[in-house]
């Protein structure tokens, strides 16, 4: 073999190696290039305006160049699933420099609603028999804002399976009653005095939710063709979909609305209450 052939081959190897290294270290990790192959433009735009817009996709999402190459072959074979569904392992959220202190400084307050939330109890304990992960609450699909907390997920856990006049964990588990007296039907009413007198929230707030949050069996067909045999095995379904696959709760469950939906027309025993309050 002549020196010229060897030289050409060497140059070719160097050039291809340089292209490979450039693609692997510059092109592939670049967030703007993700949407070239994946149908994620809406999510990319959400990311651009989010608090995570300085964090590259691969810092959170586990995706390799090998997997991308396999995806290209799957696409050509017609077996590629275009639906944007990917995992973000909890360890990536809790990695050093990110949210590594979240389980130590675990309590946060949602100022608009005055709700104190404890990450540690929700993350380390089973909730209603379900193991939660970061994305159980920090969804990026249903509420239209990248990694923002969806209150609809909170409502699903706290209200599903109970009557429309109460919460599974009780009203005080999330918020307190108004501190100052309010005017009801032209009369001054104090929640604090009413609670001291033994009144229950649902004596006035007869409906605080709307909807039952029950997953229709037909929803399974969206992903599984004619496969609903495990529909009633709640533990199995949640282990596979929530703990393992990180499927967002509202991908399957319809929303439960929460608020002052139904009130009594007349405050029960209003006169007796005022007599007691005196």
Question: How is this structure best summarized?
Answer:
With 278 residues, the chain is α+β, with helices and mostly antiparallel strands. Helices cover 39% and strands 10% of the residues. The protein has a domain at 1-84.
Explain how this protein is built:
The protein is an alpha+beta fold and 278 residues long. The chain has a domain at 1-84. It is 39% helix and 10% strand. It contains 13 helices and six strands. It has helices spanning 3-27, 31-37, 41-48, 57-60, 65-76, 90-93, 119-124, 134-137, 151-159, 191-196, 234-244, 249-252, 270-277; strands at 107-110, 115-118, 182-184, 187-189, 205-210, 257-263. A two-stranded antiparallel sheet has the order 1-2. It has a two-stranded antiparallel sheet with strand order 3-4. Strands 5-6 form a two-stranded antiparallel ribbon. A hairpin with a 4-residue loop joins strand 1 (107-110) and strand 2. The longest helix has 25 residues, at 3-27. It is elongated. The model has no long low-confidence stretch (mean pLDDT 83).
First and last CA, distance: 108 Å
In helices, the fraction of residues equals 25-40%
Strand order of the largest sheet: 1-2
- Main β-sheet, in a few words? 2 strands, antiparallel
Portion in beta strands? 5-15%
Q: Which residues sit in consecutive blocks of at least 5 with pLDDT less than 50?
A: none
Number of strands: 6
Q: Choose one word for the global shape.
A: elongated
Cα Rg = 27 Å
- Average pLDDT reading: 83
The computed structural class is alpha+beta
Order of helices and strands: HHHHHHEEHHHEEHEHHEH
Count the DSSP helices: 13
